[in-house]
Amino acid sequence: MNKLMNWLSESFAPNANKLFSKPWIAAVSASMQKVVPFILTGSLIYFYNVIKSFVPALPDLSPIANYSFGLISIMIAFMMANQCMEKLQHPAYTINAGLVAICIMLMVSTPSEEMADSFSGFLGNVGPTGIAVGMICGLFTALVFHLWAKLKFLENSSIPDFVVSWINVIIPNIIVLGVTMVLIFHLRINVLDIIIGIFMPLTKVAQTLPGFILISLLYAFFYTLGISTWLWNALTTPIFMVAIQENIDAVAAGGVATNIVTSEAFFTMAFITMGGVCATLGLNILMCFSKSRQLKMLGRVFIAPSIFNINEPMMFGAPIVFNPILMLPAWINAIIGPTYVWILMSTGLLKIPSMMVQVGQIPAPASSVMITQDMRAILWWAVLLVIYTAVWYPFYKVFEKNKLAEEAAA
Q1: Are residues 174 and 254 in the same domain?
Q2: Is 401 found in the same domain as 356?
Q3: Which of 199, 221, 251 is the last residue of a domain?
Q4: Residue 374: pLDDT above 90?
Q5: What is the pLDDT confidence band of residue 46, given thresholds at 50, 70 and 90?
Q6: Average pLDDT in the 355-377 region?
Q7: Which domain holds residue 250?
Q8: Which residues contact 363 (CB under 8 A, 6 or more apart)?
Q9: Is pLDDT above 70 for 4?
Q10: pTM above threshold 0.90
């Protein structure tokens, strides 16, 4: 065990942090963080619409969601190119590259054939369904601008600086727009369908129990190494967004929701993330009644954030991060959580979420009932809390024993 922990702390974690700090990877992660406010804007309107269904006299606020979250792919295209230029240290191109990425996204998203000239078809393409397309458009634009910037064209020339800056934007603009134009309008290649088709196998794998567990374990494993869960949003956001939109559309058409693996099931419902990623609420409750003065004090300080599913204080203050005694139960719970949710929802014991509310800091089980619209969520939440706490208990007792020995020695 000591050899494993030494390898994780001295080799794996530093190398992983080094990898995730690479400009291209860091840019993708930063882009996803910057569009979160627009996702939350849509979440609030979807939640408001639930209230409106009971109070029809309330005004219709759907346009707010349609022209914020409904344009999320365009925003991602801009932010992807913008953040790549920033991380790659090309400040002169941050805005221009982002704007060209929007142009590319609009060109790629133009409806064709029977949907040509359909505004609703266009909105469907630039909404959550096209998130992966927006990412690719932004990355393609950033790549062209990055390669052009490295040429340092007309640097130290006698041409006025403002003219040089225009030329150095116009040329990569023409390259990016020209390549896209040829693909779409001359070769008649449906770039949108191709990109979505490439991502579909990943989405289908994610909508399985093994895929659900893998996502949960990735979050938990790297979090216990002190690596932020935000890093995985580039992978999970397209999966989650497409899945919840399909659920919403299915229910609106009179059908039933079928996609279990959504952000709502993972975060908002607060089953898998009960107290935060790694399901730390049970451990926090145990600490509140600890015989160790230090653990009791920390438990009572951390309990308020834990109730709101914020567990950075627990992860780094208990600590769980790089604590060999507490890392293992954190990983075990990361398997138990998605398995438990999958069994409940696949057997009809709990409704699958069909509304988009991506606010993970609503206390459970209130959030659990709200997102599933199923009162049984209270019972299942309580049962899961007992299971999580039982998993934490033997490891916590060893941790507590060590703390008591330290306090006695002091």
Answers
A1: no
A2: yes
A3: 199
A4: yes
A5: confident
A6: 88
A7: 209-409
A8: 270, 307, 308, 309
A9: no
A10: no
Provide the residue count of the chain: 410
Residue type, position 232, single letter: W
